[in-house]
Design brief:
This protein has 373 residues and is of the alpha/beta class. The protein is built from 14 helices and 15 strands. The strands form three sheets. It has a seven-stranded parallel β-sheet, with helices on one face. Helix 2 runs parallel beside helix 3 and helix 3 packs parallel to helix 4.
Amino acid sequence: MQQVEFISKNHNMKELTIVMIMTSDFSYDQRMQRIVATLSELATIQVWHRGKFNAHGNEKNRFVSIDPIFKKGGMFYFGFNIIVLFKLLFAKTDIIYCVDTDSLLAGGLAARIRRKILVYDSHEWFTEVPELKGRNLVKGVWSAIEKLFIPRADVLITVNDSLAKIFSEKWQKPFYTIRNLPFTKAISPGAGNDKMLLYQGAVNEGRGLECLILAMEYLPDYKCIIVGDGDIKKNLVDICRTFPWRNRIEFISKILPDQLDALTVKARYGLNLLDDSSLSYHYSLANKFFDYLQAGIPSINMDLPEYRKWVQEDGIGLLLPTLNAKELAELILKNDKGGIYQKMKDNCLKNRNKYVWEVEAPKLLKLFEGLHK
């Protein structure tokens, strides 16, 4: 593995170029938007992503669309990495930044061949996601890629302290926590009087959305909005049509961050109901948890380690012990009367500026400001 030299802060970091590789669309990835905005202070950045346009480009940043023939499944990831590897062999770059394991094959190979600095940013426990449950061959391929390149990475990042501890022990290398905190936003929280329950994020298995939809039977005064797209969305829409309470459930396709902020502040609760069927979910700390906090609305979360820590410490939401529709409804009704709800909302407003990107960004800059070949 190449040696990483730490240089003076006075060195002209503008000379450095970082190529970031991600299989998702940058336009909808708020974590990566924040990271790019921060690292732009130190270097010129290229983002190679699945997006189709360059709306975020400027004199410091350039965006490149990676568009394989196959759009999903194993052939998509294979095609994506082949295209990226070929481009990386000739691209001008000092640092190769891989977002999750699905970009690590191309980034890791190119970093070794060209002796470039390799950064690995794990947004989740990739090999333990629900989508890989029972798919031992696919899981084995991703695990092999991690085994090849994670030990050779120069900087290792993840999203919370639980995963940082697990990964550091597993790989015998330090992982640094950079949490998914939002920028401070000049948004005025609503009163939550509309009794709207909001979910934002991927509409995939294991997100507790079936539970949320069924809970609406017991919450006749509430409405529910689900914002996002994913593998089970069509099935959920079809199921909702069979329920008498279908008119109180609305599905909205994923929207840009500013539009999402405007909707979130109107909600009474933000929902974050990851089930406990995978280690990745068990140790998660989702963006939406802090987005709800920044919007000044209490969140309802599964009683999992990271959420338990934040909710109990600051009183900013509720914990659901089991993923059960009737229990979810009872939890909402129990805490939605008297001064209990207002106390949670007041705690959100009091604490929201403690957990913002402006606090987290210096940690990221410290990892990069002295990094040089």
